Amino acid sequence: MKEIKPIIKFVPLVLLGVCCMLTAFTGFSWYNKLLVYLYQIIGFSIFTNVYFLYFSVRFRMCMYTKIAVIGLMALNVFDIINLIHPIGKELYLVYNSIIVYFFFIISFLFLALRKETDNGATK
After folding, report:
1. In angstroms, rounded to a whole number, what is the distance separating the alpha carbons of residues 29 and 113?
2. Which conformational region is residue 73 in: left (phi greater than 0), alpha (psi within -120 to 50 degrees), or beta?
3. Which tens digit of pLDDT belongs to each residue from 87-96?
4. In this structure, are residues 25 and 38 in contact, taking their beta carbons and an 8 Å threshold?
5. pLDDT, tens digit (0-9, with 9 covering 90-100), for 60-77
6. Which residue of 4, 13, 71, 84 is most buried, as measured by CB atoms within 10 A?
7. Would you tell me how many other CB atoms lie within 10 Å of the CB of residue 71?
8. Is 88 left (phi over 0), alpha (psi -120 to 50) or beta?
9. What residue ranges do the domains of the chain occupy?
10. Per-residue confidence (pLDDT) for residue 61, from 0 to 100
């Protein structure tokens, strides 16, 4: 773990640098097609959420934080799939809502289970 520590703290800066370097290609037509994917993968999504997830596990954040980050990752993966195979605005909103509600309900289930075990432990 000590070997990765000096590297991991520079990940956000490296991702920002990659985004800055890629802006040099904005005049090319292939870049405009690729730009939509880059936003989902590099800019603010997949890698950023993996980074958040790493630190939420590393520093033992609460389960709800981990669930939220995994939910955001699921939304980003769904967005990328929708970019490759568009499903239409109405279906997109339905599936997007299902993903959000699923992770929201999972959070409440963990909360209910935690309260139940906490109440059982105090009896």
Report:
1. 52
2. alpha
3. 988 888 888 8
4. no
5. 877 777 888 888 888 888
6. 71
7. 19
8. left
9. 5-122
10. 78
